[in-house]
Write a sequence for this structure.
């Protein structure tokens, strides 16, 4: 597929792969808390004939420096742009915090046709890094909608760090927060029973960063209770980082991800079959 890469027009930040022939499917690729604009993954999706945005949604010029009260309107605007280009099927592809954003966007934007959420969360969490005011603590929501912060599950400052392979493994922190702040779970739960978008979840059972396998199972149960089907692709030995065909995404040097090169790539290959169907 013959595509060209260009920078997005302001106020959007990032880039877009656009085929020289019109395509009906538009994809928005959202990276996680690393802040990476995932051009390589966007190129992979563009190779399948889609028009693909690799979006910078925090950390850019004029944007919130951390994942702190990020406006969901940023993601609505990406859909606006794809539809202006003639795309009619909009697919959001998010990883980790990007998956959290993608799932929330599908709830509040009925134009979303499908979400591919990799290493997802079933609830909204607090901020990672500072807001526009440069302040990281006290904790605030990761997201806002029409200027109002969304309810979130609080952190636990008393959690004792756990380690794996010399790196901090945060899975236990998130599991503890769900126990300590049980009353916050329902208000913070992403209400995916309210979206008509197709939902594809991809998670590793050995995720050491957060319990994405448990989050994914919770999403499946909640939607099933409303009579909605959710596709879940689970790799028992895979970690937080899922490698789609051809990807060589490096491991984090700051936190444990779990899994292995082999298991992460195996899950990515399996998921790719379902991803192509979603496209």
């Amino acid at each position: 597929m013959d595509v060209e890469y260009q920078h997005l027009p302001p106020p959007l930040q990032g880039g877009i792969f656009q085929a020289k022939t019109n395509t009906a499917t538009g994809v928005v690729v959202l990276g996680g808390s690393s802040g990476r604009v995932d051009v390589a993954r966007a190129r992979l999706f563009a190779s399948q004939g889609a028009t693909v945005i690799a979006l910078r949604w925090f950390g850019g010029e004029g944007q919130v420096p951390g994942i702190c009260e990020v406006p969901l309107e940023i993601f609505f605007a990406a859909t606006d742009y794809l539809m202006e280009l003639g795309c009619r099927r909009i697919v959001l592809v998010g990883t980790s915090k990007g998956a959290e954003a993608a799932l929330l966007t599908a709830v509040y934007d009925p134009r979303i046709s499908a979400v591919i959420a990799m290493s997802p969360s079933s609830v909204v969490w607090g901020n990672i890094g500072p807001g526009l005011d440069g302040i990281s603590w006290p904790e605030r929501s990761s997201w806002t909608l029409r200027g109002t912060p969304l309810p979130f599950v609080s952190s636990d400052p008393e959690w004792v760090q756990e380690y794996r392979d010399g790196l901090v493994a945060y899975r236990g922190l998130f599991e503890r927060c769900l126990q300590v702040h049980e009353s916050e779970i329902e208000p913070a739960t992403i209400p995916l029973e309210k979206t008509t978008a197709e939902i594809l979840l991809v998670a590793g059972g050995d995720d050491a960063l957060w319990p994405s396998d448990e989050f994914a199972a919770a999403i499946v149960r909640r939607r099933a209770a409303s009579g909605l089907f959710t596709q879940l692709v689970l790799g028992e030995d895979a970690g937080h980082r899922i490698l789609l065909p051809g990807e060589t995404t490096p491991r984090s040097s700051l936190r444990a991800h779990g899994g292995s090169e082999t298991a992460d790539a195996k899950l990515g290959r399996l998921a790719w079959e379902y991803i192509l169907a979603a496209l």
User: Anything to note?
Assistant: DSSP finds seven helices and 13 strands in the chain. The chain has a mean pLDDT of 96. The domain at 3-278 is CATH 3.40.50.1820 (Rossmann fold). The longest strand covers residues 89-95.
